[in-house]
Amino acid sequence: MFSDVKELISWIESQKRIVPKTSLQKMLSLCEVFGSPQNKIKYVHVGGTNGKGSTVTFIKTVLMKAGYQVGTYVSPYVISFNERIQFNDHYIADEDVLRIGNQIISKYDEIERRGIVHPTFFEFITLMAFIYFSECKDLNIVILEVGLGGLLDSTNVVTPLVSVITNVAFDHMKVLGNTIEEIAMNKLGIVKPNIPLVTLENEKINKQFKARCKETNSKLILVKKKNIQNIQISKTETVFDYKEYKGLKTNKLGYYQTENASVSLETLDYLRSCCGFKISNEDIYQGFQNVYWPGRLQVLSQAPYIIIDGAHNIDGITRLAEFLTTIKENKRMTIIFAVSKDKAKDEMISILDHLADEIIFTMFHYKRSDTPDYLFSISSNPNKKLSFDLDELLLEAFNKPKDEIVVFCGSLYFVSEILNKIKGE
Questions:
Q1: Do 208 and 304 share a domain, yes or no?
Q2: Strand (E) or helix (H) holding 210
Q3: Burial of 328 from C-beta contacts in 10 A (0-12 / 13-18 / 19+)
Q4: How wide is the angle at C-alpha 333 spanned by C-alphas 291 and 337, nearest 5°?
Q5: How many CB atoms neighbour CB 40 within 10 A?
Q6: Do residues 208 and 337 both lie within one domain?
Q7: What is the pLDDT of residue 172?
Q8: Cα separation, 259 vs 343, whole angstroms
């Protein structure tokens, strides 16, 4: 048993991360030890390669504006461990992390007697979230983000009101497969019999979406890109139309956020039309304008224009580059890049090389970080540098001329380190 929450969190984070799975039976059995708390809650289940967190936050913010009590479960965290489990705008309290964590550990003898292997890191915190949400008074719904893939993800023991897949792109190929079709099949594992799926159209895999929904007798609600119109991108907001919704504004930046917002709109419309949720158009318009989701095209300063972005795969970097191309004009741009070893670095750096007037390679203080020297060797940018001092890089960024652009990107671990440094100061 733990008496200090930091020691408990450190212990949780030391547990095994990824182990081979063939079914969800272990997670179901772990839940049964605690009275199957996951069955006491209504859910929206959100999977996808990129955009899950933003979509969770769009849906949550609108539901809260409509007066509902909303839980969210997201991963990974950016600010603190407690960020993973939230009730409305409040992170789970340290005392609840300690209490529920110890409650789970206290059952390890029983877990062993039942022949169940101890929970992995993600199974532990998912179980913690289910227990916490089952205890929340007046909770109306939980927006539950998939951790990895879908089919065998620990969150996939729930039956939601609606399933959501934001998009499908290349990431975690060692686990999910090496083709878009294989990755899509894994993500489609969250689709349950007779439960609708909301997703963004993708010509390569639309047939898979349709086949899976036919197989499960699930309604397919497909967001068509042609319905996202009149997009206006600036350094401070994104404006667009979607179907009958005209002039929607959000403080989330980038073209891809119009897709996340449109997927969220269809999800909210389904909750409103088929699940009894009372959501007005005003709730949607006002909710979208006030979304807070740290570390994703987050602006730290307007002059100089400094942004951080957790883009950590080819699709994410492509979307970031799309936004940067729109706002760059003739301004000088410095990109500061750090990335995990297992990512598609060559392609990511190639995209950024074409944009940056200067590119600086650094690292973050986590074992998965790649070395700046190796990243430097990949780059073909004529103005490339190395730095091992993030404090110095931040100081230099904030002291740049007011018309320059500075971008920190490549990993959510990197973004987390930056935000915690700024918070500490």
A1: no
A2: helix 206-216
A3: middle
A4: 75
A5: 12
A6: no
A7: 53
A8: 24
Tell me, letter by letter, the H, E, C secondary structure of 240-283: EEECCEEEEEECCCCHHHHHHHHHHHHHHHHHHHHCCCCCCHHH
Which tens digit of pLDDT belongs to each residue from 141-168?
999 999 988 999 999 999 999 999 998 8
Same domain, 369 and 270: no
Verify that 184 and 163 share a domain, yes or no: yes
- Of the pLDDT bands very low, low, confident and very high (cuts 50, 70, 90), residue 181 is confident
Per the omega criterion (within 30 degrees of 0), is the bond before 76 cis?
yes
Residue range 312-344, pLDDT digits in tens: 889 889 999 999 999 999 999 999 999 999 888
| Confidence check: pLDDT of 425 > 80 | no
293 contacts 362 by C-beta, under 8 angstroms: no
Which pTM value belongs to this model? 0.93
User: What is the tens place of the pLDDT at every residue in 232-263?
Assistant: 999 999 999 999 999 999 999 999 999 999 99
Crossing angle (nearest 10°) for helices 255-274 and 314-328: 110
Q: How many domains are there within the chain?
A: 2
Asked if 146 and 267 sit in the same domain, the reply is yes
What's the Cα-to-Cα distance from 330 to each of 72, 237, 298, 336, 403, rounded to whole Å?
A: 41, 20, 21, 19, 10
CATH (domain of 305):
3.90.190.20
Q: What percent of the chain has pLDDT over 90?
A: 85
C-alpha dihedral sign at 113, 117, 121, 125: negative
Let me know: does 267 contact 44? Beta carbons within 8 Å. yes
How many residues appear in the chain?
A: 425
Structural domain boundaries, residue 264:
5-289
Distance of CA 13 to the CA centre of its chain: 19
CA dist 76 and 13 (Å) reads: 12
Asked if the model's pLDDT at residue 78 lies above 90, the reply is: no
CATH number of the domain at 49, please. 3.40.1190.10
Q: Does residue 175 carry a pLDDT above 60?
A: no
> Are 91 and 210 members of one domain?
yes
